[in-house]
Amino acid sequence: MNVFSSQGAAGICINDKNEVLMVLQAAPEEEKKWTVPTGTFEEGETFQACCEREFYEVTGLIVRTDEKIHNKSGVISEYGISYYVEYFLVEIESGEITFQDSDEFIHEVAWKSLEEIKMLPLSYPEDIHILEQVLEK
């Protein structure tokens, strides 16, 4: 089987109430699930640039990456995709939450507490551990 490789970046933005900015997304036929703003590399980008661009495209917010906090890699065997994602803490520099998504995959952008996130259907349930570590600092 051919394995397609995907690389990308994810941004974790925490407000002064210790809430995380989450995105509800799904393709037209998929179940809607929550995730932190995440996206795939474009040619020539750094992981930080990918994170900042994707965050803007998904939320309308201009952010600056702070520290890298996690790497995640693996294989989604049912789709034959290997992936590598770098997670960054991000700070909002400017902008307002708006839907910028031309593909219409984004259904909602909202601040969520860790307790709320634990109850949500998540695109990547394993990310809860990353969020717990960041929020409990």
TrEMBL record:
<dbReference type="InterPro" id="IPR015797">
    <property type="entry name" value="NUDIX_hydrolase-like_dom_sf"/>
</dbReference>
<feature type="domain" description="Nudix hydrolase">
    <location>
        <begin position="5"/>
        <end position="136"/>
    </location>
</feature>
<protein>
    <submittedName>
        <fullName>ADP-ribose pyrophosphatase YjhB (NUDIX family)</fullName>
    </submittedName>
</protein>
<keyword id="KW-0378">Hydrolase</keyword>
<dbReference type="Pfam" id="PF00293">
    <property type="entry name" value="NUDIX"/>
</dbReference>
<dbReference type="GO" id="GO:0016787">
    <property type="term" value="F:hydrolase activity"/>
</dbReference>
<dbReference type="InterPro" id="IPR000086">
    <property type="entry name" value="NUDIX_hydrolase_dom"/>
</dbReference>
